[in-house]
Amino acid sequence: MERVLTERGRATRDRIVEGAARLLRERGVPNVGLDDIRAATATSKSQLFHYFPDGKSDLLLAVAEYEAAEVIADQQPMLGDLVDLATWHAWRDRVVERYAAQGDRCPLTALTAQLGLADPATRTIITRMYDRWQSHLADGVRALTAAGAIPPGADPDRSATAILTAICGGATMLQATNRITYLEVALDDALSTLGVGRG
């Protein structure tokens, strides 16, 4: 049964999770212990275990949920309103801008590379995040098709999957090389195939 927190308790828990997320992005999961998180978030040991009874495993799942939400939030409000070409172009620019600014400390990298896939619960969080992301993109393709803004016949789910894969592949290469061009080219090619390119 999920614990019901007071407003103050929720704020404290959120502060711990956000502080832990920042620290884990900077140092990586293997290099961060609970004492590091306590020091970075000015949290006592009793507080930490009050909100995360199983210690680091509980906290890492909470951080995974936080990072998954951040991946989607970083693309809003455009991602949830892809109803015309102008919004698609603005969303594309937001994606490139955010990943260029964050580099290998982006929420997606923290979620998939730092937190890893070994824990089935973390894998479930990541899968839900990808499903939500893909759903927004597919809805956007349907909206453009209905408005006659792109050629008819596009498969919304397939197109959304191609766009999402382009972003994630580009983000992986950005992590390894610190070059944003991989993401830009892959995303632009995926959008151009759909008919959403600027050219």
From TrEMBL:
<protein>
    <submittedName>
        <fullName>TetR/AcrR family transcriptional regulator</fullName>
    </submittedName>
</protein>
<keyword id="KW-0805">Transcription regulation</keyword>
<dbReference type="Pfam" id="PF16925">
    <property type="entry name" value="TetR_C_13"/>
</dbReference>
<dbReference type="Pfam" id="PF00440">
    <property type="entry name" value="TetR_N"/>
</dbReference>
<dbReference type="InterPro" id="IPR009057">
    <property type="entry name" value="Homeodomain-like_sf"/>
</dbReference>
<feature type="domain" description="HTH tetR-type">
    <location>
        <begin position="10"/>
        <end position="70"/>
    </location>
</feature>
<dbReference type="InterPro" id="IPR036271">
    <property type="entry name" value="Tet_transcr_reg_TetR-rel_C_sf"/>
</dbReference>
<feature type="DNA-binding region" description="H-T-H motif">
    <location>
        <begin position="33"/>
        <end position="52"/>
    </location>
</feature>
<keyword id="KW-0804">Transcription</keyword>
<dbReference type="InterPro" id="IPR001647">
    <property type="entry name" value="HTH_TetR"/>
</dbReference>
<dbReference type="InterPro" id="IPR011075">
    <property type="entry name" value="TetR_C"/>
</dbReference>
<keyword id="KW-0238">DNA-binding</keyword>
